[in-house]
Specification:
With 151 residues, the chain is mainly alpha-helical. Among the domains are: 48 residues, Arc Repressor Mutant, subunit A (Orthogonal Bundle); 37 residues, Arc Repressor Mutant, subunit A (Orthogonal Bundle), CATH 1.10.10.10. It is built from seven helices and two strands; from the N terminus they run H-H-H-H-H-H-E-E-H. It has a two-stranded antiparallel sheet with strand order 1-2. A hairpin with a 2-residue loop joins strand 1 and strand 2. Helix 1 crosses helix 2 and helix 5 packs across helix 6. The termini are far apart. This is Mariner Mos1 transposase. It comes from Acromyrmex echinatior (Panamanian leafcutter ant). InterPro entries: Mos1_HTH, WH-like_DNA-bd_sf.
Length: 151
């Protein structure tokens, strides 16, 4: 008597059956584990070993880090000194990083682009006073006290 070994196609059909029967993931897992306890474990181990060997063979000559390239603020500032009109995509291309990394760094540095040039973002005293006046007017109606002091 031979031992039946389900293949991945068979397991997919079982999962589709469980989905059509409105079974939850936990119920489907319970059904599969009760039925195919040892067989599925052996099959998964075999697949993992084979896939692991495939990935080792494919990636043996291919170096891939999971992290983005690390660069210094000085490199970015040097590029901005050369041409401050570059946008984030151009800067990312020249540094070899993603646009998101450049965007995060600009946020940390407190830089914004005004009229095509990257400049530090600083609130002027009149801007701070305007915000204080707005907040005070909103909160005065509630308790009658000033929320922040004007500069």
């Amino acid at each position: 008597m031979s031992i039946y070994e389900p293949n991945s196609h068979h397991l997919r059909e079982i999962l589709i059956f469980c989905f059509n029967m409105k079974k939850s993931a936990a119920e489907a897992h319970r059904m599969l584990s009760n039925t195919y306890t040892n067989t599925v474990r052996l099959l998964l181990v075999k697949e993992r070993v084979v896939n692991g060997l495939r990935t080792v063979i494919l990636t043996s000559n291919w170096h891939r880090d999971g992290r983005e390239k690390v660069f210094e603020d000085a490199e970015l500032e040097a590029l901005l000194d050369q041409d401050s009109c570059q946008n984030q995509e151009e800067l990312a291309r020249s540094l070899g990083v993603t646009q998101q990394a450049i965007s995060k760094l600009f946020k940390v540095m407190g830089m914004i682009q005004k009229q095509g040039n990257w400049v530090p973002y600083e609130l002027k005293p009149r801007d701070v006073n305007g915000v204080c006046l707005l907040v005070n007017s909103c909160l005065k109606s509630k308790d009658g006290k000033d929320f922040c002091i004007e500069l």
